[in-house]
Amino acid sequence: MKNKISSVVESSYRAFYGKLFSALFSQFGANYVSEIEDAIQNSFYKSLKSWKPNQVPTNKENWLFIVARNEVLNQIKKDSRQQSQSDFKSKVETENPKEDLRLKTILFLSKSKKASSKVKVIFVLKNIFGLHIKEISECTLLSQDAIYKSINRAKKDFQQSTKDENFDLTFEQIADQEIKIVEEILYAVFNIGFDSFNEKTNSIINEDLCLEALSLSKILSDTFQRVSTKNLLALFCFHLARIPAKIKNDKIVSFFEQDKTNWDYDFIKLGFHYMEKPEKLNKYYLEAVIASKHITASKNDIEHWNEIIKLYQLLISVSNSPITKLNLCYCLSKAHRIEEAKELLEIVENELPDEHIYLSLVKANMLSNKESYESEKIIKQVLKNIKQKIRREYILENMSTSF
Q1: What mean pLDDT comes out for the span 117-142?
Q2: Is 131:192 a contact under the CB 8 Å cutoff?
Q3: Secondary structure (3-state) at 252
Q4: Which residue, 271, 206, 211, is CA-closest to 238?
Q5: How many CB atoms lie within 10 A of CB 164?
Q6: What is the mean pLDDT of residues 176-181?
Q7: Which tens digit of pLDDT belongs to each residue from 8-44?
């Protein structure tokens, strides 16, 4: 029964962390970020001790919020900053329950002139979406030490740059650049959910995280009516459509082997509804077009791959990401343009960490025909680094030949 309670608390952590942080941040502000983080952690710790089997509070979020809020107030009181407490209480009374405080908090933090875009993204991934440092490291390609340093720097930057700002922003106060940062954050969150490396689950998908990113993107789109946000929504919908077919009998099913009758065609229809060609090409539109081409292709022949290659080359011209280049490497190899793929792979190897999993898998796949020993050596190293059972089984069954 103790394990059952631990499981309830663990699932609550991801579901409520961001909401708790946003609610407390709206009341206490950037000066108390460290106190808020400590208070939320303590509230989850207390829930482990207090919640009994069959006696878990009906409103777990409210229970955690009250405990965390009292914890922050106690910490402030100890620090002799008690004079502010009356102000905090008044803010509770004026809170609008219909607002999504997470999106509001992200927009507020995005306005900071002090913190860099990268620091903002890292801070929000941890505090609004409750992602672990390891997960952030995997999606940003930054070391875990660098992530810790960025978060600590973000706290100081936000304290300095937002001390005179009113949390209750009007939408007219939000600039295009700030919306772009929010789009980038939601894009990162979705990708982490869609390709999860969580070792505790027998899936590579965190559907809740994907749907959170979709939900907040929908609010952002409805509010600001930006074409880039619509294309972000289109991209999410095309990916979400394939989730029902990605896992079968607790095994990963590659895109090309998925049963298309299991795809969610309502999401595909919605993806085309949102997709809109922008005046100036951006990565969300191009990625949505690529996803739609894969979904609607009747066959995956050379002609199909050459069409996808052209789109990836356009994508690199607007977003020179090493991951995009790596995807292009894969497409070139599928189109039998091996020499071009190898040339590009050498460039990507200088831009990604040595043991980047997808880099290793693409390289091993490209070497599998003529340099099988080297290919298997790479696969062995990948298997050493992957702890997630479902991925290990997929690689062993589909990529290795002598294990």
Answers
A1: 83
A2: yes
A3: strand
A4: 271
A5: 6
A6: 88
A7: 666 677 778 888 998 898 888 888 888 898 899 889 8
Helices 60-78 + 85-94 axis angle, to 10: 160
CB atoms within 10 A of CB 330: 19
Q: How many residues does the chain have?
A: 403
CB 61 within 8 A of CB 97: no
Continuous segment of H or E residues that includes residue 197? none
**For the chain, counts of helices (H) and of strands (E):** 20, 2
Burial 286-310 (b: 16+ CB within 10 A, else e): bbbbbbbeebeeeeeeeebbeebbe
State the residue for tokens 């011209």: 317
To the nearest whole percent, how much of the chain has pLDDT over 70?
A: 89
Average pLDDT, the chain: 85
Q: Tokens for 8? A: 């309830």
Token representation of residue 53: 């089997």
Task: Mark 1-21 as b/e (b = at least 16 C-beta within 10 Å).
Answer: eeeebeebbeebbbebbbbbb
Q: How many CA atoms lie less than 13 Å away from 364 in the CB half-sphere? A: 23
Give the list of residues 6+ apart from residue 53 with CB closer than 8 angstroms, or none. 1, 2, 4, 5
Q: How far apart are CA 112 and CA 158, in angstroms?
A: 7
CA distances from residue 143 to 149, 165, 194 in whole angstroms, order as listed: 10, 32, 21
Q: Output the CA torsion 19→21→22→25 (10° steps).
A: 160
Least Cα distance to 29 among 97, 121, 83, 109 occurs for 109
- Mean pLDDT over 325-345 rounds to 94
Element (H, E) at 81: none
Using CA atoms, how far residue 332 sits from 105, 217, 304, in Å, is 42, 32, 11
- Strand 251-252 and strand 247-248: pairing? antiparallel
Residues 6+ apart with CB under 8 A from 173: 111
Best CA proximity match to 184, nearest among 120, 130, 138: 120
Question: How far, CA to CA in Å, does 154 sit from each of 38, 117, 150?
Answer: 16, 10, 6
DSSP lists the bridge partners of residue 251 as 248
Query: Which residue, among 234, 224, 245, has the nearest Cα to 190 in the 3D structure?
Result: 234
Predicted confidence (pLDDT) per residue in 57-89, tens digit:
888 888 989 999 999 998 888 776 555 555 554
pLDDT at 401: 53
Going from the C-alpha of 92 to that of each of 86, 89, 103, the distances in angstroms are 10, 5, 18
d(CA 336, CA 365): 12
